[in-house]
Write a structure and sequence with these properties.
Blueprint: H1 10-29, H2 32-54, E1 60-66, E2 69-71, E3 75-83, E4 93-99, E5 108-111, E6 119-127, E7 132-144, E8 151-156, E9 160-165, E10 198-203, H3 215-221, E11 225-230, E12 236-241, H4 256-273, E13 277-282, E14 290-295, H5 297-305, H6 313-325, E15 331-337, H7 341-348, E16 357-362, H8 378-388, E17 392-396, H9 402-409, E18 417-418
Parallel strand pairs: 2-9, 12-13, 12-15, 15-16, 16-17, 17-18
Antiparallel strand pairs: 1-3, 3-6, 4-5, 4-7, 7-8, 7-9, 10-11, 13-14
Length: 419
């Protein structure tokens, strides 16, 4: 049971203390009027506290967020329904909605007195510049007397979440010879209509079987061309993300990790539009890397909305999980930061002979939170290992235009190009 003085504000306690002093002074000085004023000053805060404690705050609160999944920088509307299920009128209520800092300022309302059974709906909007799952609620309510002498506070513990999705940049299909990506007419991967393998011609890649060289096409083009025998199956792509906190820097939209998440989200949506079956590999802080198989756009964006940076050990977990997924071939897309030679070779090995490997190596520069400064050229060194294994690689920073970067890396370039 709370004490009566717990409901008094600073003003109420001051008036109460002044009243006690005036009563004592009036008695000591024999001034009756001073004592009467003191009694009044004592009675006012006591009565205010009694009335405030007596108020019924048994209201109900319901929230509806429309939409509850929004792209970054988009607006959601929150309908806050407050009802009085009790038999008596409610007092004037001051309400404040607690929201995550990423959603902006806390909305404040003054709710007029409601009769029994009455329901009011308050509306406000939230917008986030930061992806993730953000909480709306609880609702803090306060009741005070007209003189500001007493205050009663309570909170309705219910809450609702709004999921802010990562930014998705529309990507332009590559139209380079030998690329497995692009619009119709640029994809040599064919699907048989009657169950037999179809044959297409493409450029030679490191690791291709020399017995598959197509000599007539080689003579015609002047470049080594090989036969590609594709089984009647859906094209597959594996997309992986490097989440090591020690290799990323910056905050907000200029953070290298946020650029990486945006790149992964955009690539997945692009590949899904091209008809790929996409496997997404994401790190988790507490367990091994998680494999999201055959994701659709909604699943991928929901997953990437909540992905966070992890420790350095997460990279090894992702590479280990990816090796099992990519063993049967298919396109591999990696968005990574600089790494050691052993990790770079493990990543390079994910590309199977006859398949494409595309990588963005994000340059983080000096000041990475790794306990020591990042060596200049580390991103280029990582890219060189991948290029040597037949990958198409682009070294980028957090300000690189993603659409242009994608056109270059998916256009069949093999050299290291700084974005």
């Amino acid at each position: 049971m709370r004490r009566l003085t717990d409901y008094l504000t600073t003003r109420g306690k001051s008036v109460l203390a002044a009243g006690i002093v005036m009563v004592l002074a009036g008695m000591a000085l024999g001034v009756v009027d001073l004592s009467r004023i003191g009694v009044l000053c004592i009675a006012l805060p006591v009565l205010a506290a009694l009335l405030t404690r007596h108020h019924d705050l048994g209201i109900t609160v319901e929230r509806t967020v429309r939409p509850s999944r929004v792209p970054i920088d988009s607006v959601s509307t929150v309908d806050l329904a407050i009802a009085n299920p009790g038999p008596r009128r409610t007092p004037l209520i001051m309400a404040e909605e607690h929201v995550d800092y990423a959603l902006g300022d806390r909305p404040r309302f003054v709710v007029p007195s409601m009769r029994a059974g009455e329901r009011r709906v308050l509306k406000y909007t939230v917008r986030s510049h930061t992806r993730g799952r953000h909480r709306i609620g609880p609702l803090a309510i306060r009741v005070r007397d007209p003189f500001g002498l007493s205050l009663r506070a309570a909170a309705h513990t219910g809450h609702t979440d709004v999921l802010v999705l990562p930014r998705v940049v529309p990507l332009t299909p590559a139209r380079a010879k030998g690329s497995e990506l692009g619009a119709e007419g640029t994809i040599p991967h064919m699907v048989a209509l009657h169950g037999e393998d179809d044959v297409s011609i493409r450029e030679y890649r490191d690791g291709d079987d020399l017995r598959r060289i197509h000599w007539p096409a080689t003579a015609r083009t002047g470049e080594i061309m090989v036969r590609q025998e594709d089984r009647p199956a859906t094209r597959r792509a594996t997309v992986l993300l490097d989440s090591r906190a020690s290799r990323h820097r910056g905050s907000g939209t200029s953070a290298t990790f946020e650029w990486s998440v945006t790149a992964v989200a955009s690539v997945i949506c692009h590949l899904l539009d091209l008809g790929y079956a996409v496997h997404l590999l994401t790190p988790r802080a507490d367990v091994d890397a998680r494999i999201h198989q055959n994701v659709d756009e909604e699943d991928a964006l929901d997953t990437l909305a909540e992905v966070t940076t992890t420790g350095d050990e997460a990279l090894a977990d992702v590479l280990r999980a990816a090796s099992g997924v990519t063993a049967s071939g298919g396109l591999v897309v990696a968005v990574v930061a600089s790494m050691g030679d052993d990790d770079a070779r493990a990543l390079a090995a994910l590309r199977q002979p006859g398949s494409n490997g595309l990588a963005f190596v994000v340059r983080t520069g000096r000041g990475a939170r790794s306990g020591s400064e990042e060596i200049d050229g580390a991103a280029e060194a990582t890219a060189a290992v991948l290029v040597g294994a037949g990958w198409s690689v682009l070294v980028v920073d957090a300000h690189a235009p993603l659409d242009e970067a994608w056109r270059r890396v998916s256009g069949g370039e093999r050299q290291v190009v700084a974005g």
